[in-house]
Amino acid sequence: MSIRIVRLGSPRLPGEGTRIGAVRRLPRGVRKERYAADDWFDVWYPELSPSAGLVAKARGAETDKDWTDFVRAFRKEMAEPAARRTLDLLAALSKDADFSLGCYCETEAQCHRSVLRALLEERGAKID
Description:
Number of helices: 4
Strand order of the largest sheet: 1-4-2-3
Mean pLDDT: 95
């Protein structure tokens, strides 16, 4: 049992479980009934994505300092009570269920999912 951190739209891996889309916006040009069938996500959960302003900040990050500033700001958003409880829940569920969490970004290292991975690891989540 564990969480997999994935790129949305990539082919599902065996045993991946329910795929959670931690993205602010729905995939463009994809009909709602195709989200799961086309390997985007089973459940859309935008509360696990950065605010619109922070998404712009992440996309515009050109230096290590820019990225560090984004990470700090996103961690602050994820420290809000509702987000903190969601992360605690996902960490607990990772011990009893297989599921995945993802975003559209090509490279995890320059994506908020790298921050989500770290936040979940800090809570003792079991991550593949």
